[in-house]
Every structure is written in C-alpha cells, then in structure tokens.
Amino acid sequence: MPPLGRQALNLAGAALRLAARAATGAPVLAPADVLATRQAHCRACEQFRQSDARCALCGCCTGRPLFDKLLYASEACPAAPPKWQAWLP
Q: What is the 3-state secondary structure (H, E, C) of the chain?
C-alpha cells in the first residue's frame, strides 16, 4: 500500500483530471459496462486486497465512491502495463 501522502497525491491528481473532463463537458463517470470490466480486472489482480477491497498499488477503495477510481472515466490502472485504461467516448 502506498504511504498516505502518496495516496493523497493520487486522489488530488484524480480530482484534477475529473475537473478537467467536467470543464470540457466530457462524461466524468465511466458507463456501467466499463465499470463492470474494470471491477473484474481489479478483483482478479494480485494487487487487489480482498480484506478491505483496496488496490495495493494506488490505494483506491472499490465501493467507496469518492475514493473509487474505477467509477471515473479519466482514471487508469496504475499497473505496468495497465490492466485498464481511461475511458474516452
């Protein structure tokens, strides 16, 4: 799990990307089918912590909307290579 400071920076970066998309009028939330695919990738990943439903790479919390990057169209998996990309309509 990243240190708390890194998690805060990750969240701040996600908020900026989200705001940038909103400012252009682009969708900020991923559609349901994209969300389902992302969830399947995360839950099958070796970095996914079943105990608290969090990613050990970035610290996001699946199931907690403010901290669940799966919901946001602008976000991508932090793994190298990424297991899923940002969604662009």
A: CCCHHHHHHHHHHHHHHHHHHHHHCCCCECCHHHHHHHHHHHHHCCCEECCCCEECCCCCECCCHHHCHHHECCCCCCCCCCCCCCCCC
CA 28 – CA 3 distance, rounded (Å)? 27
Q: What is the pLDDT of residues 18-72, one digit of tens each?
A: 999 999 999 999 999 999 999 999 999 999 999 988 899 988 887 776 678 899 9
Question: Which of 73, 50, 74 is CA-nearest to residue 63?
Answer: 50
The answer to whether 88 touches 34, Cβ cutoff 8 Å, is no
Record the tokens describing residue 27, joined without a space.
């969708």
